[in-house]
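Troubleshooting entry. The earlier prediction with zinc ion gave an output that would not parse, so I re-checked the input for stray whitespace and re-submitted. Clean input:
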Amino acid sequence: MARHLITSAIPYINGIKHLGNLVGSQLPADLYARYQRARGNEVLFLCATDEHGTPAELAAKKAGQPVAEYCAEMHAVQARIADGFRLSFDHFGRSSSPHNHRLTQHFAARLDAEGLITEVSETQMFSHADGRFLPDRYIEGTCPNCGFDSARGDQCDNCTKQLDPVDLIEPHSTISGSTDLEMRETKHLYLRQSSMKDQLEAWIDSKADWPVLTTSIAKKWLNDGDGLRDRGITRDLDWGIPVKKGDEDWPGMEGKVFYVWFDAPIEYIASSLEWVDAGTGAGVDQGWERWWRTDKGADDVRYTQFMGKDNVPFHTLSFPATILGSGEPWKLVDYIKSFNYLNYEGGQFSTSRGRGVFMDQALEILPADYWRWWLLSHAPESSDSEFTWENFQTSVNKDLADVLGNFVSRVTKFCRSKFGEIVPEGGSYGPQEETLIADITTRLAAYERQMEAMEVRKSAQELRAIWVLGNEYLQSAAPWVAYKEDPDRAAAIVRLSLNLIRFYATLSSPFIPDAAQAMASAMPESPDAWPTDLAATLNALTPGAAFAVPDNLFRKITDEEVEEWQASYAGVRE
Ligand SMILES: [Zn+2]
């Protein structure tokens, strides 16, 4: 039995995510976790919410809530939606947990002991009205280059000139609007990533099997311009993990917190401590260290991370710098699966403009399986992909309703009408069945290969091809014709087809878990293990055993619905 540690990039706390976020990390991670569990492997699948930083503080302020209360509430909302999409996390943690506080402070102490932390004095814009230092993007003013009146402190969106806040004419805080700003000196801790460049590069070079999308982004950050830069890991904020050296105070750093990007990936580990505390890992060995410490049994763990391409630099460089720099035997990632972006109807999803379908809305429209199937079968792997309602309609109606749903419905209803709701006895499999079993055996091997390789789209294609084989078989074997001449022959065809439904339940469960459950529970003997001997699997149901005709697995999406949804989610013009 192999052991798989799987993490999905952790979604930020402020608000509900759109479908592009879902397919960029959580959903394919869930596909892989479900597949590995179905293969009988031991899996620990972790995710969490990313709760620190200025956007969380501002979102809480806007909601009129204390930030801790806001985060607790939004975590519950995101957890409920994740559950709605059947994301099978072993634990869905929180980066603000006490476990992550302790672990982040521990890592900072270790990095300091290894000589990898340096203190840097810098000047930053301080807003008297807001009582805080302002991150560059929360300062706006007139661009000295082109005169654009809402240039940001880091860049002018009109002429693209890179700016410093001090360059702006009449700068103001975008939080309060105040112009009462001054440059003030402040001190921050920096992680000396530059001194680890060779170590990080050697580690990335050792990952010959990683996707080009992942390694090319890492290489760019390692080598472009001045090469890998040291990184500030503290901020002048209230909300976050207090800067401490393990349990000890950090002189000169009083009142500061760690930068959200320093503590967020550490939450992957902290989440497993939360998991142990919560006792949700029933049936799995509770020791978290055997997943994370190579000196405590994690040597045989395969660790896979899923994320959108924008997260790759932090996961290939910053987080490994934290792990390697600690000098302790922590588990490093073995494989990073990264994704491009999903666009929406010829543009981008936009939270602020309400453009596109968000996770909560999607579940109000249709059940999770419809979305899971479309998103996974169109995952933005080799390039960006695009959601359109028409494409969604075509995919659901053809793949799910016409191919899989129709097969299940035809077989079970035909059987009921001729033999009753029992697995029919009589007849035996002949050349047609042998051909089918051989064809599916070939396809099944291909499906397994693609799933192991995390080729999400190709896996969906193989699965669909296996569904199609069943339909083609039923069409050509035509039990409704055979029944008139030779009822035993019809019985054998139907029996094999019922076995196929049970087999499809196992095979389809990583993609469409609810429909798989419906197929499985309709059949008398529940599918337990992944099929290794297909001839035996397709002969497993006991003749004479009772089954149930399941409700239609999928309904079709109408043209009227497509029109309505296109209009509803087009977004409001600004
Ligand atoms: Zn400008």
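This one parsed fine. Residues 418 and 483 are 8 Å apart (CA to CA).
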